[in-house]
Amino acid sequence: MAAANEGADNALLQGGPRNTPARVLKPFDRGEIKVLLLEGVAETGVELLTKAGYQVEYHVKALPVEQLIEKIAHVHVVGIRSKTQLTAEVLQHAKKLQAIGCFCIGTNQVDLDYAAQKGICVFNSPFSNSRSVAELVMAEVVCLARQIADRVREMHDGNWQKKSAGCREIRSKTLGIVGYGHIGTQLSVMADAMGMKVIFFDVLQIMPLGTAQPMDTLDEVLEQADFVTLHVPDTPETRNMITREELMRMKKGAYLINASRGTVVDIEALAEALRSGHLAGAAVDVYPSEPLANGAGWENPLRGCPNTILTPHIGGSTEEAQYAIGVEVGAALTKFVNTGCTLNAVNFPETDLRPSTTTVETARIINCHRNVPGVLKQINKILSDYNIEKQISDSNGAVAYFMADVVIPNDKTLAQLYMSLSKIDEAINTRILY
């Protein structure tokens, strides 16, 4: 078999012994799949990838760019959190990379378009830590209303300051949620249960939960809410969504909470609104620029602002959330490597092909190619000598993805099929699985 694979990476030309049952899909040699995990990704993800039989290299912290480039040239899967930046400059060195797992909600640390053009499928965990973020925000609402951050700091300084001025209950106050997705809706239910009035704004038409009321514009939320909390992705439309103008629209004495993305709020303008007394407090968990490692020396205009809670991007940093993220992303990566399934990918067509139920021996072929006319015609011409048990094809922007289970005739080899598909000019990468 080694001779038949000459010139091809065995981890791309995947299969198994000729007597492997047709319904068992597994790589030619799982031990040849190399996985690089960075930033101390969840242990559950490490266990899943290790049990799959892959070679797993694990690092607690992010790697310097030079070392990252050196490592990424030889691996098939990379797992990261939010600090590692997989830019086009880094990914151009990834000669064998098949998949990236973002063990977090966001994917803005990855150049998704470039990854797709190179045939690299990207997965994340958009919902696993939504409860953790919602609970943090709910806690911050109470802490801001009671000026807890200032009292704690005073007590640690040996300064006893018992007072009620400016401290309020949250019952009957209005919570304005900007972005009514998985986090926003869970937060809505919590706030409703605690006696708050909930209003929200989202660019999509979403059914309210409980007594929550949708608003037609962002300005309506800013003008009516006692507490404004942001839960939006990082997009061109949301960057600097909250500037001095929006902060001035908020009620005098209102509070702002940002646990979404650091690019959403103008930090300088927020600091000014807090120091001037226009806002009564703020809680910020994300920042335009965040350190790559723990340690002293972090600077930010919000430091020292009154009644301001600053946390180091810990919205989803709970043991429960990390456990769930490890399971979700680890399972998605192993399923992609072993079966070609791209469900829940963020930059690929979402496709899946259940194994054939026939007792005839089949191989699964996977071809990622540029989404231009005529490629499927070329693929089908190559496969005309094979019996196709089932197939599926879909596209996402400039990238198309084709999967098929085929019967290999006695006069053909997997290596021949692999080379024929790889020679298509528009092909980005090709894999063959049993």
From TrEMBL:
GO BP annotations, alphabetical order: L-serine biosynthetic process
Gene Ontology molecular function, alphabetical: (S)-2-hydroxyglutarate dehydrogenase activity; NAD binding; phosphoglycerate dehydrogenase activity
Coiled coil: none
Domain S-adenosyl-L-homocysteine hydrolase NAD binding: 166-297
Listed InterPro entries: ACT-like_dom_sf (IPR045865), Ado_hCys_hydrolase_NAD-bd (IPR015878), D-2-hydroxyacid_DH (IPR050857), D-isomer_2_OHA_DH_cat_dom (IPR006139), D-isomer_DH_CS (IPR029753), D-isomer_DH_CS1 (IPR029752), D-isomer_DH_NAD-bd (IPR006140), NAD(P)-bd_dom_sf (IPR036291)
Record flagged with keyword Oxidoreductase: yes
Biochemical pathway: Amino-acid biosynthesis
Record flagged with keyword Oxidoreductase: yes
CDD domains in alphabetical order: PGDH_3
SMART domains: AdoHcyase_NAD (SM00997)
Keywords linked to the UniProt accession: Amino-acid biosynthesis, NAD, Oxidoreductase
PANTHER family, per database record: D-ISOMER SPECIFIC 2-HYDROXYACID DEHYDROGENASE FAMILY PROTEIN (AFU_ORTHOLOGUE AFUA_6G10090)
Family under the similarity heading: Belongs to the D-isomer specific 2-hydroxyacid dehydrogenase family.
Descriptive protein name: S-adenosyl-L-homocysteine hydrolase NAD binding domain-containing protein
The species this protein was found in: Caulochytrium protostelioides
